[in-house]
User: Fold these one by one.
Assistant:
Number 1:
Amino acid sequence: MYGSNRVAKDALSSATSRRALIGASGAIGVGAALASGTRFAAAQESSTLTIAFNLDPSTLNPMTTTNIAEESVAAAVLEKLALFEAETLEVTPWLAESWEYIEPTVFQIKLKSGISFTNGEPFDATAAKFSLEAWAESPTMAQSASQIAGYSVDIVDDLTVTITTPNPVPTIPSLLGRYMYMVPPVYYAEVGPDEFGLAPIGTGPFIYESRRAAQDVTFVKNPDWWKGPHPIDTVVFRVMPEELSRVAALEAGEVDIAYYLSYSLASRLEGVDTATVYSVDGLRKFLSAFNAKMEGGEPLLDPNVRVALNHAVDLDGLVEFVFEGQATRLEGQYALPGEFGFSETLSSYGYDPDLARQMIADAGYPDGFSLTYAYTIGRYPKDKEVGEIISTYLQEVGIKVEQKPLEWGEFDKQRKEQTLGHIFQVGLLLIPDLNETFNYMAYGEEVRGGPMIDWNDDWWALFEESRSEVDPDKRAALYHQMLDIDHAEPYAIYLYGSKDFHAVSNRVQGFVARKDQALLLHDISLSS
Amino acid sequence: MNLPKYVLQRVIQTIPMLLFVLVLVFSLTRLTGDPASLMLGDAATNESVGALRDQWGLNDPLLIQFWDYIRNLLTGDMGASLRYSRPVADLIGERLMASMVLVTASVIISVVVSVPLGVLAARRWNRKEDTLIRLFVVVGQAVPRFYLGILLMLLFGLRLRWLPTSGYGTWKHLLLPAFTLATPTIALLTRLVRSSMLEVLSADYIRTARAKGLGERSVVYRHALRNALMAPITMLAIQAAQLVGSAVVVEQVFGWPGLGRLALDAIYARDFPLIQGIVLILCLIVIVTNLVVDVSYGFINPQARAS
């Protein structure tokens, strides 16, 4: 189900042969002539962890960003009430001691005691209430916070708060695991969200020290961390947007972790004995969503046509040849293995172009039909290649496809205007709970300006029921029924889930590649 | 026309040009993409996107947005970045120095390398040295900076370990990106210096100078080179301005914290105020560079000053 593997490495000789040296120097002689004659001292200080990171965070306030990478930097300082377990994705308490639904509409959270923010403010019910409200009121969080619309947070005692909602909200634990960082109320109120994002204060293992724009963010050890002082003194997140640069820096020993790589570059490190590549099944799932309500999309109103188009695509071929096997096939459903609601009984439709052609003919389109297929360029790994290949698969079963490759900003704009295409690529990275995915799909009129397909009435009834079912087993059972319906009347061509790759120096101990893409430093240490 | 008057006239001429560029950028950036939607992610509702657009003033009519922008600009306020929630001037200020360091180093390297190479090629016309230099020119102009940067990084950073693979802060960090950025310019200028020198070296006054018994060094460097540099200097000015734009790729490869990367991020996020601010600054750089070159003509060639 979950695959975090360490890839063994062969030795890379650091010595350069005379022949290679002469050849290379000849090719780029001017540079070599001017370069220093001494070997660059790249060794890291033994107590400093340097992470080559893929972006320059726009803020260190996780209340104002939904970008998991930006959150990962802030998470050196700030902590949440709960975490997703790295492998099982089960939500487990972190700053919270425990929680329970004391009534279907009342969610009670008990907090750990004896914890303070690094500015001396206590972490207690007042801080938790302030943080929960700050999260829910943040414009950036409006979409997720809408799940608890009409909420109130009440202090029961110093270490207990309740979240009361007008209707039962079964996903509050997932929201705790994904969002809801705890902030010091006095400082946060004093400086405001933007200033807080420049110099955050939290309860976490590190304290924010400095930032150099587009270069790095530095944190130092919090000596009073509630779990005991962290073994690493200093953590530096170095901004390195180009992934080849991250890999080269790791190989050269300039950084300890090269975060977020593609398989093609991560595999470059397979011969290096000083580093280990970690791979993990990620949570981003890729679909080709149908938009039957766009002009010319009438054939897609027929569920059999939508099933036929799923048969038209060779998923195994796509995974094998485009991603070199480094992606996870979706099993005829939106959910990835491990995600809450995943159905073990469903499987992929199977590649059968003859059956697809027959089903399209039986639906009244013996000569096929025309549609527009939109996909992004450069937004996701190999998105252009996937778009082109799927278009080809569809053409093979008689569909005349007009391809529409777009830059992400324009893609997003057209999607909201509902002018994007009859089928378009989607790469969803949501909370690993099908509730969020179903919300995304069912309320497509909000996201994309109009309903995408005709929804099955039974599906709607089950969806409404699931939204107020706080018993996890019953909710999962409802999701399975919904997935069954959707398998027969698909919303999309179900494609694949991505895999994430990180390369880590062998002096780093305790690194865990997490499915949710977060980088948590809690258990990391450095060997001497 | 005296120099101060000439400079003042050129400065005044830039105002309508800047205004035109601002109108263009203001309009074009708003044709595609919605920053609020991009920031809020895949599942954002129209309501939440609308609320954020309200907060940023993006729901006001375009004319009002533009008028507000110009009004604030006249008071020195370039607005606040949507993505970073910080003043645009601060963000640009943080990055401008890094860009200027990179571009200046590249220009210096370009001049220092290309002029001797061009002169050597001209003096050794059709011989082995000339052939080798012409080969370098072709390769230097043909290899994309992105690819060259990666090659240099892998060679000097990874294989030889002479220089850091990326980063910012010391002269060692500067060498690889500056050479990467400079290489096509070196190639271009070398070709220009070579052809200009070949033309000048065959001129009558050079033959006269030689006939007068002047030394070869004096003929080449005092008489021929000064006259041969007009075209390369013009090209250098154009190149210097282009280098700021070309630096985007180099900054990306080497993690150099310059304006180019900031511009790229701003475009992807549709951070309108930041894009406008960067374009404004880049325009000013181009204008000032051209002005400096125009003025420098006069120093190099008195005839140009007289005209």
Note: Chain B is about 80% helix and 0% strand.
Number 2:
Amino acid sequence: MGILCQCCNQANATVHLTDIQAGGEPVERHYCEACAAQEGITMKPHEPINTMIEKFVKMVPAMRDAAQLTCPNCGISFGEFRAQGLLGCPEDYTEFGELLMPLIRRAHDDCDVHRGKRPGQTNDVGKLRVQIRSLERQLEDAIAEEAFEDAARLRDQLNTLRSSYDASKQNDASEDGA
Amino acid sequence: MSVDDLTGHVGEWLRGTGPMSDIVISSRIRLARNIVGYPFLSRASGDEKREIYRALADALASAGFGSNSFFVDIENISDVDRQILVERHLISRQHAEGEGSRGVSVSLNETHALMINEEDHLRMQVLKSGLQLETLWNDINIIDDRLASEIEFAFDERLGYLTACPTNVGTGLRVSVMLHLPALKITGEIEKVMRAAKDLKLAVRGLFGEGTDAIGDFYQVSNQVTLGVSEEEIIDMFSGQIIPQIVEYERAAREALSDQRSVQLDDKVWRAYGILENARAMASEETMFFLSHLRMGVSMGRFNQLDIGTINELFLQIQPAHLQKRNGGKLSGEQRSVARANYLRQRLGHNN
């Protein structure tokens, strides 16, 4: 025989609460299901799991709509792209825009801006970058080996290269702006 | 010039020359490009694939890639011929097994192979023996520029070169260096190296690329990040840091084996030689295993009856399509094992 509901004193109590009073004293309370519902203590019976999932998906309409978003140029939907891993045309990068960016960042170590060659670019800047890095390595080695004369020479060379690197980058920038 | 003319010799990339060629078999750089105005290949119709094929073949011709190269129409050659090109690393498996119009332009010395209609409209690749990434970048950069003056590639100001798979976007550049690492395998340190490579966001694959095992102790190390770094930075990281570091590990492992386990080491090498020159039936994988040990013996100076170039050539000539081409017809797996053993006995000199 269980505890009786403290409200109706008839049915068995199935809902058990522990309240902390103002003085910090715990007080136990016991209700039957009907009285608990009347008092507004219990929640409605559990919803079936599929209803809950459906509600969750509706909470994030972006997820549902994204899969259906379709490129007007090639006709591929974002869902189809996700299934096959290949895009349908170069325009997809614009059409799917921000949907694609998280994937791109995950694949590319958090990067999302191209820093390499452009069609028709002369590669003087790139060559300078390679030379600078190579000199930087040699300089580190020279310092580690305490070959300070070499280090001084390398540092001078580096400074010259760095200033022409900065100059050619500025040239690039002004050409881009033109 | 056709596929038939290739099989008797090896491409430049297997000659066993070039920097660090005791351990670095070959270096490869590929660029992925697509031409504007067409869908990527998964959404392209048969007609569109033909148009892309024609447009790129024309661009190659007018950019001057006819004279020292030959062009292969992949759609209309035999399965064995496609497989020959795969074994020579001139096309990918995906390209061999694809559908519709597709082709490849190959330079006579096999240092460049420009694939039309693979995963992207154009996949250009250059390959050479040893660690030669700077030279390769110089070469492929020129090829890219020459083609770009003939045809317009899909390019976005923010994202760079646009590719069918977003994992290639940006530079579209993939560096792959093929390494022979038998000593690290024997000492069991290979796992450590592979884990370190993966931490650096590098892919490690087997001899024939994606999805293949590291048979014969060959490992292909390549970059996965193509966006946010320049071509030179990727190349510099490989030739300045990653590859020299792995080569150093392999050399240290070889030295440790020579110092501490020289009898066992020589035993492995000579056993491999004994089996390769005497067996009557050799499966492909087991041949790769023993050739790997023999190659290690040669490159460590412990076995002097063969040179690296010859061993590299054997690795190629014992592949299924090369065996069948030499035989002049299709062979079953069992027949291939016999043909492979016969070939090895012939090449290793003794007519026993």
Note: Helices of chain A lie at 33-38, 49-59, 61-68, 78-84, 92-95, 97-107, 124-144, 148-177.
